[in-house]
Amino acid sequence: MPDYTITGGGYQATISERGGALRVLRHGDRDLVTSWPEGGPVPYYSGTMLAPWPNRVVGAEYAFDGRRHHLPVNEPDRGHALHGLVSDRDWECAELLVVEDHHGHVRLTYIVEPVEGYPHRISLEVRQALSEEGLSTTLTAQNVGESAAPYGCGPHPWLLAGPDVTTYELELPAGRVLLTDELLAPTDLVDVAGTPYDFRAPRVIGETAVDHAFTGVADGRVRVRGPEGGVDLTWDPAVMPWVQICTGTGLGHQGLAVEPMTCPPDAFNSGTDLIVLQPGDKHEATWTIAAVNEEG
Fold first, then answer.
1. What single string gives the DSSP state of each residue in 236-295?
2. What pLDDT, on a 0 to 100 scale, did the predictor assign at position 2?
3. Which residues, if any, are the signal sequence (predicted)?
4. What is the pLDDT of residue 101?
5. Mean pLDDT over each residue of the chain, to the nearest integer
6. What does the alpha-carbon distance between residue 15 and residue 25 come to, in Å, rounded to a whole number?
7. Dihedral through CA 132, CA 289, CA 263, CA 70, nearest 10?
8. What is the pLDDT of residue 99?
């Protein structure tokens, strides 16, 4: 499971072939994401690519194109299919450019072959590039099979601003939150006003346990601040209209998961914002992680 380290703009990033994951991101001497040891294991999907669906397919089954499909269950305590098919797979390095203190980048590829519950062939490419603006990641998917394929994607970084997420200040300018039941299956999409999940004005997370998808993020930005500084994650909300926020309450894992997504949980069943890739179609999504400067 080789790693690839790039530098640029005062940043250093280490990308793993496992899951195409961002394993380390530093600005100066400060870690911006929760890292993990070289060689793994990868804790709680840290930094991995989520495709051809992010989040959950409830009950690990769905209907598409007139057929019922059954996916392998990888969240056995809830019975769902979680975070796609590539987060634990070894990607291949297609290009590596290491330029000291300038614009280093690395490009990894993976092909999703037809499997139980997902009889489609999807070519994936992830390009990670550093500059003074931070780490910009672009995930490109192309349907290289012979049938239309449902598709969604997102990343799974845990942003790091100190050892205790309860001390983080979260700014999440999202207007609506998707409520869930005890199995984290979606129930109702509601206005954040009057819920514990209204972080439109920056405030400390405290003891609020969050593991929810949000939408209506007008400017496509989430900011966290803590004792060790601040981190921004930005994206185009026209391409990724959803973001999952997870405090990891009870996991014993540092950081705050901030996961921009092209679709909400269980989109394979609801159809909400689901992308359908016809043979030959491409889809591209980009996001950026950056340190917040003292004036930011």
1. -TTT--EEEEE--TTTT--SEEEEEESS-TTHHHH-TT-EEE-TT-EEEEEEEEEEEPTT
2. 85
3. none
4. 58
5. 95
6. 9
7. 120
8. 63
